[in-house]
Amino acid sequence: MAEYVIAPAPRPALPVRGSAALFPVRRIFCVGRNYAGHAREMGAKVDKSAGPMFFTKSSHALAQSGSRLPYPPATEDYHFEMELVVALAAPAFRIAPEAAQGVVFGYACGLDMTRRDLQNKAKAQGHPWDLAKSADQSAIVGEIVPIAECGVIEGGEIALRVDGELRQQADLSDMIWSVA
Q: What is the tens place of the pLDDT at every residue in 89-129?
């Protein structure tokens, strides 16, 4: 076993519905601008021919749903976006769309938190969004529901309410890029 000069951080993980076992999270890979309406609202062109736009978050940005989270430093404009989280059980780089559901372990709901003022500044300068998107505890995720329990998800409502007030609502079938 390797010896470390400092103790490594524990592996981020999420609870799995109906199990005491945890799902390990190695990295968080995100599809940006995946809803045409939201992309237009943010001033982005929607051009499916350009392919999907990706960004990542460190797995250490992970926070479990229900956690008490501090407001992050260096921002005055912290936004939330409700997201479908897809937990992959195997590598999926360059996988054929018809084989994609075979690597899905399950699904969860999550919040993608963004320091919007930092993101806008980075976009204006043509810089990456890392500081805006990958703040500590900026990927809040609920329990994972195994695909064996819920089946393949291709549509259905995804919504967010804050103190009972509807803030976001869409149908998963409205995603520009499906899970597959």
A: 999 888 998 999 999 999 999 999 999 999 999 999 999 98
Say if CB 118 and CB 73 are below 8 A apart.
Answer: no
Cα 52 from Cα 61, distance rounded (Å): 22
What is d(CA 46, CA 102) in angstroms, rounded to the nearest whole number? Answer: 29
pLDDT of 46 > 80? The answer is no
